[in-house]
């Protein structure tokens, strides 16, 4: 099989895997992905008011670029009579995934000269199918889009060496500007890239001016979009840095973690054996190739985020697509040291279990809903009970429509669903039942830790319908521990207690 045909097969497979993942990955990995993009777009479509949005809207600290793109796409879909919210967001994720596939292929091409012939196939496969990449790369989130667009800029920069075009640096700058508007923290990546251009690449001054001009044009355009979106003069990135730099402990109020957290995260999140390889590979790359464009961009990004008190794993998602090339480049360094038959045998012994782990992880991530699967529950209610009136009883912190008991996910709310909240499963009783509606109960698995409360399920004749994370995946999670078991949601159909059944008869 020739290389071109093999590459086309891999690309076609990637399109299928990413599309399937996008369809199945309902909802959001983190609340910001929904509340600060999808819900924000509702202010322009007229479905939301300012009081129904997260506090960041009234503070004017979020770029309006992504909510505006979301608003534009949803407006087109509404004109085409595609109004189902789950279909609309699935299309949004599919388009994000396809864009990522295009950029990834360009990045692979731009690194062709530094990947040895024997490792090109592995690099191609890893770039698309490292188990967590598809589920991250279909997210229409600030982390994903800033990372993809930055990867796009690096790809064009590396290809520019071989195919120099007059305005390529302006284009690179414009793309870096888009990356910044998607997520302001990506400026750290851009500063690292510019540092590499100045000190390592010795880029000509006129090209640097082109790049900075491209960045400036996009940032000015971003300000204009902000003004249109917020309906007043707004510079959202200035507001963002001003609020977080002048408000005491605002960032820390969301939780703090030690400076070494991201080192542990790099080991744990990709799954222990793969994570160890990623960390060791990056250390090898720093030692052996300190002038690499990857070291100059990724290392400062990790260091700065490590110094910030509030840390979340998603903050490192923008650099996720650099991991395959880091793994391959480090492996090539090891190959130079161990060129013998015994090394090939050892390589196979290590590689086979890693490939199997990757396949399991890839399958799991491509078939589940995002995060803990809250929107899997709402999607099930949407599809199964759209013709019925529903009485949804939820325990504290269990409502999939309002998981943090503050702002509801208005975009997904159903007109036929009435929500009732109870303190705990133990407080469930007949008087919660509405005999004019289908009665459903949703709870976190934490509620099942109390045997006395669990007895209420039998007393109320509750039938388990679904849980937000499939049972087999929950079993696998015992080894991976990527999901807090207590946060998994379980949906029940309530047949009712004895008094309720008697009344029905």
How does this model look, in words?
The protein is an alpha/beta fold and 505 residues long. 60% of the residues lie in helices and 6% in strands. The protein has 21 helices and five strands. Strands 2-1-3-5-4 form a five-stranded mixed sheet, with helices on both faces. Helix 1 runs parallel beside helix 6. The longest helix has 27 residues, at 341-367. It is globular and about 75 Å long.
Which ranges are low-confidence, i.e. pLDDT below 50, for 5 or more consecutive residues? 498-505
Biggest sheet overview: 5 strands, mixed
Give the mean pLDDT.
93
- Total beta strand runs: 5
Strand order of the largest sheet: 2-1-3-5-4
Q: Quaternary status of these chains?
A: single chain
How many structurally independent domains?
2
Beta strand % = 5-15%
Question: How much helical structure, as a percent, in the residues?
Answer: 55-70%
SSE pattern, N- to C-terminal: HHHHHHHHHHHHHHHHHHEEEHEHEH
- How would you classify the helix and strand content by structural class? alpha/beta
Give the count of helical stretches. 21
Radius of gyration (CA) equals: 25 Å
The backbone outline, from C-alpha atoms, is globular
Amino- and carboxy-terminal Cα gap: 70 Å
Please provide a brief summary of the model.
This protein has 505 residues and is of the alpha/beta class. It has helices spanning 3-24, 31-45, 55-59, 65-79, 85-110, 120-129, 133-137, 142-160, 168-182, 187-199, 205-230, 236-246, 261-268, 272-288, 293-307, 323-337, 341-367, 374-384, 451-459, 471-480, 498-504, and strands at 390-395, 417-422, 438-444, 462-467, 489-494.
């Amino acid at each position: 099989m020739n290389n071109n045909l093999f590459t086309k097969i891999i690309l076609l497979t990637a399109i299928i895997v990413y599309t399937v993942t996008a369809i199945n990955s309902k909802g959001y990995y983190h609340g910001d992905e929904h509340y600060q993009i999808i819900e924000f777009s509702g202010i322009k479509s007229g479905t939301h008011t300012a009081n129904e949005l997260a506090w960041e809207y009234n503070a004017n600290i979020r770029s309006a670029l992504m909510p505006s793109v979301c608003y534009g796409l949803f407006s087109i879909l509404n004109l085409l009579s595609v109004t189902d919210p789950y279909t609309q967001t699935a299309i949004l994720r599919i388009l994000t995934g396809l864009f990522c596939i295009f950029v990834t292929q360009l990045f692979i091409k731009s690194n062709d000269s530094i990947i040895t012939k024997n490792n090109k196939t592995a690099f191609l496969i890893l770039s698309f199918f490292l188990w967590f990449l598809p589920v991250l790369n279909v997210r229409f989130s600030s982390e994903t889009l800033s990372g993809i667009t930055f990867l796009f800029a690096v790809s064009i920069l590396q290809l520019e060496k071989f195919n120099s075009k007059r305005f390529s640096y302006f284009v690179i700058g414009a793309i870096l500007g888009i990356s910044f508007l998607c997520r302001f923290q990506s400026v750290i990546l851009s500063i690292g890239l510019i540092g590499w251009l100045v000190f390592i690449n010795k880029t000509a001054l006129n090209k640097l001016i082109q790049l900075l001009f491209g960045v400036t044009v996009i940032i000015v355009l971003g300000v204009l979009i902000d003004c249109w979106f917020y309906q007043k003069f707004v510079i959202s990135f200035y507001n963002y840095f001003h609020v977080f730099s002048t408000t005491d402990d605002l960032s820390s109020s969301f939780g703090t973690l030690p400076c070494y957290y991201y080192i542990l995260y790099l080991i744990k999140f990709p799954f222990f054996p793969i994570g160890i390889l990623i960390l060791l590979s990056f250390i090898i790359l720093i030692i052996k190739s300190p002038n690499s464009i990857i070291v100059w961009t990724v290392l400062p990004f990790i260091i700065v985020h490590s110094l910030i008190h509030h840390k979340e794993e998603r903050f490192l998602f923008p650099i996720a697509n650099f991991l395959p090339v880091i793994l391959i480049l480090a492996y090539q360094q090891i190959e130079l040291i161990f060129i013998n038959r015994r090394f090939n045998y050892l390589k196979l012994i290590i590689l086979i279990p890693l490939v199997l782990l990757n396949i399991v992880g890839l399958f799991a991530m491509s078939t589940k809903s995002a995060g803990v699967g809250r929107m899997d529950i709402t999607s099930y209610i949407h599809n199964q009970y759209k013709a019925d009136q529903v009485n949804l009883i939820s325990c504290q912190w269990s409502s999939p429509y309002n998981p943090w008991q503050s702002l509801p996910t208005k975009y997904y709310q159903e007109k036929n669903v009435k929500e009732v909240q109870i303190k705990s499963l133990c407080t469930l009783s007949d008087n919660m039942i509405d005999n004019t509606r289908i009665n459903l109960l949703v709870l976190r698995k934490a509620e099942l830790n109390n045997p006395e409360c669990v007895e209420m399920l039998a007393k109320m004749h509750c039938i388990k319908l679904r849980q937000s994370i499939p049972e087999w995946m929950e079993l696998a999670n015992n080894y991976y521990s990527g999901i807090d078991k207590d946060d998994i949601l379980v949906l029940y159909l309530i047949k009712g207690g004895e008094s309720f059944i008697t009344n029905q008869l």
